[in-house]
Amino acid sequence: MCGIIGVVAHSPVNQLLYDGLQVLQHRGQDAAGIATAADGRFYMHKGSGLVRDVFRTRNMRNLSGNWGIGHCRYPTAGSAHNLAEAQPIYVNSPFGLMLAHNGNLTNSAQLRKDMFLQDLRHMNTDSDSEVLLNVLAHELQAASTRYQVEAETIFKAVAGVHQRVRGAYAVVTMIAGYGLLAFRDPYGIRPLIIGRNETEQGTEYMVASESVALDTLGFKVMRDVAPGEAVLIDIHGNFLSRQCAERTSHAPCIFEFVYLARPDSLIDGISVYETRLRMGDFLADKIRHTLPHLHIDSVIPIPDSSRPAAMELAQRLGIPYREGFVKNRYIGRTFIMPGQVHRRKSVRQKLNAINMEFKGKNVLLVDDSIVRGTTSREIVNMAREAGARNVYFASAAPPVRYPNVYGIDMPSRKELIANNRSDEEIRREIGADALIYQDLEDLKAAVRAVNPGIVRFEASCFDGDYITGDINSNYLLDLENHASSGRRKAHDDDHDGGQLDLNLISHA
Question: How confident is the model over 67-88, as a mean pLDDT?
């Protein structure tokens, strides 16, 4: 999970990109970067940490130009604080290209071999985003007959990317001397939306992971980038788009609506907030029909993403809704913490119980999901320590039983508490007196009710159905082995973060 943004404007965009990344900070807290272009040069600054910590006034002054891209990144296993993998990333052949990517390529290992043996391209990191950048660069070179950048050349190159690349990818790319390119994989797994802003100088365009970035910066939502589509905005503000994939099937990641996205965002025409309300409706119905004997004094959310579902659940059941935990907003999201020790330690730092809401009561705690179970176990313990008589636990999502390979850090089946465990076994593991999971079909219905046009979802972490069709047990085993070796390397290495500034002469 990452956040990406691209802007083509009629005035300097450094502040717009910075503010946009601040709004998308929930999508990545490990590293951030901005690249802009002016006077035949790319200007870039990136570093490890939160957006506010990476950029200083002197860095912002150096980011000249009226168009650019930005990226915020979350830590994947074994690569936290690896500055070499921070984005945007750059290549200068056959044209100057800057790329920022959200997602994960499932055939990056084979592509890396092809790049080296056939395309004669060398890569410096283990990042699949660098693989994607080099595939795009190669396809641009193959599509160009005169080493000149034209719209037809670019669209043909994106079509070549779709033919070669598998997995999830939402991408913003700067093409030196030409403009901004954005495209999305043929399944539309990761989100990407377009907005516009009318000024006296003309129309300005923004592409971002979530609509909240557009709203905050005064851009009006136009539409989502369609699966397989490429959008091209040149430096003069001319807007072109084309479907570049031979076959498409719209299947957005359903976990975006459960946890990843901000509630005030629209993704593929779907209000994230409304879907979470409906999740609460379905969950309340399940509790009423399957656990009518439970005496619940109050419904308490685990801040923040479960709050809409908890509010709606409480109203549906006619049970008082209470805020029982206070959240320290300066602690990162524990789900994307790089390692169990960090996650366990951060739970107590992030949440503190309000004792009066627990003492002597039967409480129903509502969370958006249960992934590794570490957070859930600690929260149940906190409720008991605060004096709760009985602690019931409800998940607005189904059991997470399978790894996610499309850009969410769920690489190891052994780390997933629901893998090869029954609901009763999970209940005992987290120490709750009762455990209620959302049914997968109800989750899909909750999202589909807001936009009936979406008939399919990427829900592999719940059902093990990998929609790209190229994932098997050997792939998952290799992924887990790679993640384990990456964690060992990260433990042995002494990554001290750092920052990187580049002023790059383009040769377009």
Answer: 78
User: Residues 443-489: pLDDT tens digits?
Assistant: 999 999 999 999 999 999 999 999 999 998 888 888 887 766 555 44
Q: Respond yes or no on whether the N-terminal peptide bond of residue 292 is cis (omega within 30° of 0).
A: no
DSSP 3-state helix, strand, coil percentages of the chain (rounded to 5)? 35, 25, 40
- Residues 281 and 262: their CA atoms lie apart, in Å, by 20
Q: What is the DSSP string of 388-441?
A: -SEEEEEESS----S-B-SSSSB--GGG-TTTT--HHHHHHHHT-SEEEE--HH
pLDDT of residue 75: 62
Enumerate residues 6+ apart whose C-beta is below 8 A from 388: 358, 359, 360, 361, 362, 363
Burial class, 357, CB count within 10 angstroms (exposed 0-12 / middle 13-18 / buried 19+) = buried
Q: Which residues contact 482 (CB under 8 A, 6 or more apart)?
A: 78, 411
Distance CA 207, CA 194 (A): 5
Q: Which residues are catalytic?
A: 2
Looking at residue 81, the DSSP 8-state letter turns out to be T
Residue type present at position 5: I
- pTM value? 0.91
Of 170, 239, 230, nearest in space to 202 by CA:
239
Pairing of strands 362-367, 390-395: parallel
| Residues in Cβ contact with 498 at an 8 Å cutoff, skipping those fewer than 6 apart | 47, 48, 83
Give per-residue pLDDT as tens, 368-406.
999 999 999 999 999 999 999 999 999 999 999 999 999
